[in-house]
Design a protein that fits this description.
The protein is α+β, with helices and mostly antiparallel strands. Strands 5-4-6 form a 3-stranded antiparallel beta sheet. A two-stranded parallel ribbon has the order 1-7. α2 crosses α4. The radius of gyration is 15 Å and the shape is globular.
Length: 167
């Protein structure tokens, strides 16, 4: 479980001049986790990355009532997957995804970084297969695995809201 603290976090990077904000992409969130894994000598495979994206999206929906990224998550054989990200990194197979050249931190707000660090600290410690097995015990995947369909953001929000403790 994650604890919902008092600090108000946002899911958007805002333009200081226009005050307009842009939602992150799943690619941005993926790059954060790949960079974090590389910085800590912790292998982030495509399988592990998919599960971290799932947990980040689910808990973000539970905490803030809105998505962290727009891309859909589907229930595949080995758990929840963001197809666009899977295909981007599938050439790595079971191997760790190498470090990225881009400084992803420049795209993120302090609040987004804090949130993603929290997800990493809770779930990044687990192996890809442990995370896979964890997702196989969770309702969002179980409800969609037979037809490999999209897990709606509403379903993610409803499920992960049951896993959040209030301060």
């Amino acid at each position: 479980m994650l604890t919902k603290g008092e600090k108000k976090l946002t899911n958007e990077k805002c333009n200081a001049k226009t005050k307009r904000c842009k939602m992150l992409s799943a690619k941005d969130v993926a790059k954060f986790f790949i960079k974090k894994g590389s910085d800590e000598d912790d292998d982030v495979t495509n399988l592990k990355l998919q599960k971290l994206l799932y947990y980040a999206q689910g808990f973000h929906l539970a905490f803030f009532g809105r998505p962290l990224f727009e891309e859909d998550i589907e229930a595949w054989t080995h758990g929840p997957v963001v197809p666009e990200i899977y295909h981007q990194y599938k050439a790595y197979g079971k191997e760790a995804i190498g470090d990225i050249d881009e400084d992803i931190m420049e795209k993120l707000t302090d609040e987004q970084i804090d949130f993603l660090y929290e997800i990493w600290s809770v779930f990044g410690q687990y192996s890809a297969w442990k995370l896979r097995n964890m997702t196989h015990d969770e309702k969002p995947w179980k409800d969609h695995e037979k037809d490999a369909s999209v897990i709606s953001k509403k379903e993610l929000k409803d499920y992960f809201s049951t896993r959040v403790e209030e301060d």
